[in-house]
Amino acid sequence: MICHLASPGGVSGGSLMVDTSTVALDDTRRASGPITSVRALTCGQAEQHEEHRYGSRLPQLWWVFFGRSWVPLPLQCFLIEHRDGLVLFDTGIDPAILSDKRYIKEAIGRFLLHRIFRFHLSEADRIDHVLAGAGVAAGDIRTAVISHLHFDHVGGIAQIPQADLLVSAREWAILSEPHPEREWILREHIEIPSARWRQISFEPSDDPLFEGFDGIHDVAGDGTMILLPTPGHTAGSMSLLIRQDGWDPILLVGDLTYEAGLLEQDILPGTGDRETLLASFAKVRRLRQRLPGLAIVASHDFTAGDALSRATHRPSQNSGEMAS
Ligand SMILES: [Zn+2]
Questions:
Q1: Rounded to the nearest whole angstrom, what is the distance from the C-alpha of residue 23 to the centroid of ligand 1?
Q2: Domain for residue 17, yes or no?
Q3: Which terminus of the chain is less hemmed in, N or C, by CB atoms within 10 Å?
Q4: How many domains, in total, are found in the chain?
Q5: In this predicted model, what pLDDT tens digit does every residue of 204-217 receive, in sequence order?
Q6: Measured in angstroms, how far is the CA atom of residue 48 from the centroid of ligand 1?
Q7: Residue 255 C-alpha to ligand 1 middle, in angstroms?
Q8: Domain annotation covers residue 9
């Protein structure tokens, strides 16, 4: 449940009621269930090496230094309007990573960052501004699911100090390992005093739907938002399964893949643990066999917004046309 993770007597006396005056309610077709809408929010743009996105037989250090083919990627997070409160899936990047020379403490990290990514960010890409653009106050976010601890997914946590931040216990353990910053997990921007981190331990499930996964976690306690471990990009990466009557099921996979189609074809990115990624890909494909129509939605996939529109039978966010 969302509430069982909240500290007793916390914000709003433990209530998750939302001030709906600040919530942009979707006036298109409503589903019959606790979730009103699932939206992709863009928190800036970037470029990465083609070898990073689509994989390469060359060693990672080769393409980091000598790769010349850059491809664009969106930096996205997702907003779920649940009747118990607003839920964010990831929090975007902090634009200070470009403007603050000390954002990354280690010189080697600063040096490598711009050989791995080209960022196109402005102050408007910070999560509180992005949410305001969507008609939502950052202070109304009750829960943020953090798919994994990379800097482009935790960059907004300082803007939502009232929210419970759900992270897998396995992912959190990386912070205790030597040099998490070498994995682009920046402790100084994660272990901040205002952050209400809540570690998730996945519980066993006898639901055959989840066979193969190492447990589940029901975020709201109503079965509409189920967290599943999908490691590979990082050791503790997780995905969120959203199910509601009248919609196609949706799986927000974070960075398990950079594009839904790549997962279907077993095309690995140039980063992460190959064997673990392949195992998670296979689990997701098996899940889709059991849940026909499952929309696989990746954080850095330009088609994420359209996939969500189709799954929730809303007009396309990009074209304004009715999705079939
Ligand atoms: Zn990412």
A1: 26
A2: no
A3: C
A4: 1
A5: 999 999 999 999 99
A6: 11
A7: 5
A8: no
